[in-house]
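Researcher: I'm preparing a figure for a lab meeting and need a structural model of a single chain. I don't have an experimental structure, so a prediction will have to do for now. The sequence is pasted below. Please return the structure as tokens so I can convert it later.
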Amino acid sequence: MDSREGFIWLDGELLPWKEATVHVLTHALHYGSAVFEGEKAYDGVIFKLREHTQRLVDSASLLGMNIPWSVETLEQASYKVMSANGISNGYIRPLVWRGSETIAVSATDATIHTMIAVWDMLPPYSCTASEPGIRMITSDWVRPPPKVAPTAAKASGLYITSTLAKQAAEKAGYDDALMLDYRGQVAEATLANIFLLIDGELHTPTPDCFLNGITRQTVIEIARRLKIGVQERAIMPEEFARATEVFVTGTAAEITPVRQIDNWHFSSFEITRVLIENFESLVRAGSN
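Model: Understood. Here is the structure written out token by token.
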């Protein structure tokens, strides 16, 4: 990714991609003091940009960082960098981090930096007509309680367990990992929220120790508009035995069906396909 052509918005300026660099003693590299967002543009419109940008600001605040740019400026910068790179359908990655003024754990005086990059993006999973849906395996890693980590923030440091879990899943021949939480309840996938269809209703874990995804919220809104019941509650792993459909949601994943989790198999995708069709119509309509 470091040798691409194009431009990145960095601290208010558009820089050539290869020149948008940081020092090796950047606080974020050593102590994880960074937050980020994942956004997606469809036909020139970034889906739910305001929600994503506000979450970036809120995440930074939870880590004690005040972004020196307004929400409106960041939104304008996102479109500016899309235009500079000639991309109308792609993935947008804003990132906020503490700089290299100090290597101390406490770095309240470090400069707060902000960058926005955009690129064409391939789907995170490979699903085919002959093998619809992804395969998942439960990870040994779990989501921590809110008093152990800032779980309400989209903080870079929290994703090391996702990296370890997904790498282990892929090594075992699966597409992704199912993450439980510190109580043994179902939490999410490594980079996506999860839904189960049980007795005609959608069930999804309460996001009390992981992110309440923006795509997750959108799917709940779509389901309720379609008169599909939605229950947000604590879900135990054994409840997958009762599920007839399972899918995950996220900016990159959008709505991706799941055909296997451990020894549970799911072959029906009827409701999932309806939700996918409605989601695609929504994002292509340019709704923000």
